[in-house]
Inverse folding.
């Protein structure tokens, strides 16, 4: 594999946790292997690996962009990642308030609903 892949896997594990990445890797097939390589190298090995902004800031941006574009399926995963990126609950709400103003209240409202449920699940886990 490439250096970007190796760095991407390192960052991906640091942000999402070993358990999540292990599940994703176990579910990978020959069909989606090129896609998984692409996101590991591009998203994790290039964008998330950059030192230009902090992981806390990157986490907030990611959550806001997911909500603003209506990609709600990944919000719980990235809410769980805030435990590793340093983004607080208040940071998340601030990001979603920006979504409300610039992309629409319904999108922000749904993202906040997902965040509340995910934070509650996180509290229930040891």
């Amino acid at each position: 594999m490439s250096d970007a892949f190796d760095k991407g896997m390192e960052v991906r594990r640091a942000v999402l946790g070993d358990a999540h990445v292990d599940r994703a890797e176990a579910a990978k097939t020959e069909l989606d292997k090129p896609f998984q390589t692409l996101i590991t190298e591009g998203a994790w090995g290039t964008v998330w690996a950059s030192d230009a902004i902090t992981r806390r800031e990157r986490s907030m941006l990611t959550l806001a962009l997911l909500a603003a574009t209506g990609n709600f399926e990944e919000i719980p995963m990235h809410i769980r990642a805030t435990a590793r990126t340093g983004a607080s609950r208040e940071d998340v709400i601030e990001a979603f308030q920006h979504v409300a103003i610039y992309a629409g209240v319904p999108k922000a409202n749904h993202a906040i609903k997902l965040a509340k449920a995910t934070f509650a699940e996180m509290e229930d886990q040891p």
User: Anything to note?
Assistant: The two ends are 35 Å apart (CA to CA). Residues 96 and 112 are 7 Å apart (CA to CA). The longest helix spans residues 105-124.
